[in-house]
Design brief:
This protein has 14 helices and 13 strands. With 379 residues, the protein is α/β, with parallel strands linked by helices. It has an 8-stranded mixed sheet, with helices on both faces. It has a 3-stranded antiparallel sheet with strand order 7-6-10, with no helix packed on it. A two-stranded antiparallel sheet has the order 11-13. 47% of the residues are buried. Bound molecules: pyridoxal-5'-phosphate. GO terms for molecular function: dTDP-4-amino-4,6-dideoxygalactose transaminase activity; pyridoxal phosphate binding.
Length: 379
């Protein structure tokens, strides 16, 4: 029995909708399937505008353009994240200012933000790691006090909520990913969420190569022209058709993943009590989406040996981010404020377990049983 780390879920209707897109003979972006996906994401998140993009990376790049990030502007963010959170701003000359994460949720430690704000600070980019919400109330309070923008990298956070508010729609701008490794997928794919009415038109322009093509098609202007700096950030209709098959089932996919997450959580409860590992922590008022189940191994355990031992019994597990602050580009392009003890510690101890929609209870038991035997032999 081979247990892979991830198996992309298919609802079964993907090819049916792709055939429709093919029959529509409208294959570029912003056709009927893009519109359906847009409306559905707006309905789920309550944001004023959701713009489909070809990736979360693209959505973050539009966010940086929308915020007029200029060379030397500082953006506060965690170091424990994917490179795209930082790259989007660095592409505009922005400087990532890395702060440490909370030991419980592994999200940006909001208590460290205020101390690193300078006159150059423009935005706080938060990352909802594993689809578990950041402490948005406090982050929004700080942003308001210092007039900073809040960008949510909600790549992993689709369908999660913070005190009832959908992630991605809480800050000024939010970004989702529909990459194959996320919960709802289209191979590559993403969306930008825009709450602020005053930014919607510019977001549409930036996404369409810097032109007002959308206004042209709406009949608002009689020719479309170059309005500002932009790029091509929209997905084609084949991708949107695939995504539509997934979005239709977003609730049931999320519920299934949550059930699997809860099984892991129960199976590993006693091991946590015995000090063999630490399980994820979800704070009150936070509803996650079952994106990821991870454990933190004891410091004394060599993680690579655990991964290798699990691989020998056909179970694929993986670690996660190499912190950005100490990566070659992070050293060159970013600033690190204060100790990064939690980031460094978590990066070395985290182990992500197989989680996909059709994993069986038996497979989950095998993962937990094997993991515990291996850790016990090492401690
Ligand atoms: C997956 C991911 C991204 C990148 O998403 P793409 O759609 O592949 O561009 C960015 N940030 C985080 C936190 C992610 O997990």
């Amino acid at each position: 029995m081979h247990i892979p780390f991830n198996k992309p879920y298919m609802s079964g209707k993907e090819l049916f909708y792709i055939a429709q897109a093919h029959a529509n003979a409208k294959l570029a972006g912003d056709g009927p399937f893009t519109e359906k996906c847009k409306k559905q994401i707006e309905l789920i998140t309550g944001v004023n505008s959701a713009l489909l993009t070809h990736s979360c990376t693209a959505a973050l790049e539009i966010a940086a353009l929308l915020l007029d990030i200029e060379p030397g502007d500082e953006i506060i963010m965690p170091s424990y994240t994917f490179v795209s959170t930082a790259n989007a701003f660095v592409l505009r000359g922005g400087v990532p200012v890395f702060v440490d994460i909370r030991p419980d949720t592994l999200n940006i430690n909001e208590a460290l933000i205020e101390a690193v704000i300078t006159p150059r600070t423009r935005a706080i980019a938060v990352v909802h790691y594993a689809g578990v919400p950041c402490e948005m109330n406090e982050i929004l309070r700080i942003a308001q006090k210092y007039q900073l923008k809040v960008v949510e990298d909600a790549a992993q956070g689709f369908m999660s909520t913070y005190h009832g508010a959908p992630l991605g729609g809480i800050g000024d701008l939010g970004a989702f990913s529909f990459h194959e490794t996320k919960n709802i997928i289209s191979g590559e794919g993403g969306a930008l969420l825009v709450n602020d009415f005053s930014l919607i038109e510019r977001a549409e322009i930036i996404r369409e190569k810097g032109t007002n093509r959308k206004q042209f098609f709406r009949g608002i202007v009689d020719k479309y022209t170059w309005q500002e700096v932009g790029s091509s950030y929209l997905p084609g209709e084949i991708i949107a058709a695939f995504l539509w098959a997934q979005l239709e089932e977003a609730r049931s996919i999320t519920d299934k993943r949550l059930a699997i997450w809860n099984v892991y959580h129960q199976l590993l409860a006693s091991s946590e009590e015995r000090g063999l590992l630490r399980r994820p922590i979800i704070l009150d008022g936070c509803q996650h989406n079952g994106h990821m189940y991870y454990v933190l191994l004891p410091k004394s355990v060599d993680r690579q040996r655990v991964i290798d031992a699990l691989a020998r019994v056909m179970i694929n597990t993986v670690f996660h981010y190499a912190p950005l602050h100490s990566a070659p580009a992070g050293l060159q392009l970013g600033k690190t404020s204060g100790p990064m003890d939690v980031t460094n510690d978590v990066a070395e101890r985290i182990l992500r377990l197989p989680l996909w929609v059709d994993i069986t209870h038996e497979e989950q038991e095998k993962v937990c049983g094997s993991l515990l035997r291996i850790i016990e032999n090492m401690t």
